Amino acid sequence: MGHDVVVEISAEFTIEPFVEGAPGPHVRAAIDVAEAAGLAVDVGPFGTAVSGESESVLETVDAVVRAAIDHGATRVSLQLTVT
């Protein structure tokens, strides 16, 4: 792909430990970072997906993972899909 082509990326992440009920602080912190970056956020029962232009998603994924760990995550599973 050339540098002039806009590439979209979807990043799906699952953050553990699971907390019954509302998302735990480790999940909420990750979602807050993604929302602050202006990414589209879709929260599901077993994971969260963010999507946007590749540069924005790639820059934000690091901050999402760090926020989750800083707030108590013991595992973060991440999958990127490029479209």
Automatic annotation (TrEMBL):
Which Pfam family, any one of them, does this sequence belong to? Thiamine_BP
**Which ranges does the record mark as transmembrane?**
none
Q: What are the residue boundaries of the Thiamine-binding protein domain, all occurrences included?
A: 11-82
Name of this protein: Thiamine-binding protein domain-containing protein
Its source organism is marine metagenome
